[in-house]
Amino acid sequence: MKEITILGSTGSIGVNTLDVISNHLDKFNVRALTANTNLDIFVEQCFKYQPEYAVMTDEASASKLEEKLKKKAPDISVLAGIEGLVKVAELDSVDYVMAAIVGAAGLLPTLAAAKSGKRVLLANKEALVMSGKLFMDTIAGSNSELIPIDSEHNAIFQCIADTNNQENASIRSIMLTASGGPFLNTPINELASKTPEQACKHPKWKMGRKISVDSATMMNKGLEIIEASWLFNIDPDSINVVIHPQSIIHSLVEYKDGSVLAQLGNPDMRIPISFGLAWPDRIETKVERLDLFDISQFDFKRPEEDRFPCLRLAREAIKQGGTSSAILNAANEVAVNEFLNNNLKFTDIAIVIDSVMSNVAQNNASTLDVILNDDKLARAQAKEVIRGMKI
Ligand SMILES: NC(=O)c1ccc[n+]([C@@H]2O[C@H](COP(=O)([O-])OP(=O)(O)OC[C@H]3O[C@@H](n4cnc5c(N)ncnc54)[C@H](OP(=O)(O)O)[C@@H]3O)[C@@H](O)[C@H]2O)c1
Prior knowledge:
This protein is of the alpha/beta class. It is built from 16 helices and 11 strands.
């Protein structure tokens, strides 16, 4: 039996993880669940899975949770704050940690899991984008395993694992596929007036609001280039983005000999989640089977630079190195949040990030303190830039 902590259990990845686990309760036991403020769903999850610990980062929500669990589930220990997240990420009794908090808020508990010898199932790409080498060194220095849950990186992991390729020396390039998001065919001069609701209406995937906007700007793919370069130790110039609107091929690896391996499946996050939980085995899922006759056609397209400026910004950040990726990520988080709150135009997201990257100096990202400090400076700068913009 594997004991599991799910960081961010109320989100899209968290709910899908619990769905997979529900069908394999003989193999996996939920030891801890965490959320921020989403009390209603979290209470239901606590009743259903009876974890030993339930953490709510938001203190007021944690107090309300304690009150609600008192009668029906008095054995569940309720914790609050970032300390609670870190505690359940490093519990001795836990084998696997699903890192599914969105954004920088997931960095500390995900690093804590990486430090304490867990199998880290990494959905929270922002944690790796921010801390890059520090994160990979932490994994290497403990007995932790790192399995990417992002469907593209999980696909690459599957392609590489299947060839038993230890060194990556035989890889010529990686092709990250992208759906192109909801605005792939929208006239570029109409993008400025797009609303949060339109941006969050992803054509293929049902995801949280932040990653949905990132998909619409393609910053998601930019973050994924950075993520892939750290995970697989590949030069970012050898990572190409291919728009594939059907979202069936989840990514491809090109080898020196001309072979190209790909992983395919319906766009359903329960596939990479179940892979990460079961690896090196495979377990049954309730995912709809792939019907190639039904799909009948695959399309591929190059991303247009003027439609998706965030891709260029992400490439610049990884080239600059140091804390540049953390600065990029922080500026993006602030800009996306303001866009979601109707305080910023869709097309201004990239303008804010560009401005922050030009104005906040990057540093050597060797310690967590430096990374967190630059994250803070970039957030302050992004807010400043947005204050000066007209919506
Ligand atoms: N969704 C996908 O299909 C998908 C695919 C690939 C990768 N990912 C990555 O997986 C991560 C999660 O994405 P998602 O779509 O599942 O996001 P989501 O639906 O927005 O869920 C986010 C989760 O994080 C929690 N959370 C938010 N802010 C927090 C904070 N300050 N402190 C602690 N917890 C906090 C939320 O709790 P509350 O509910 O209480 O707010 C929720 O449980 C992201 O990094 C995303 O890029 C997602």
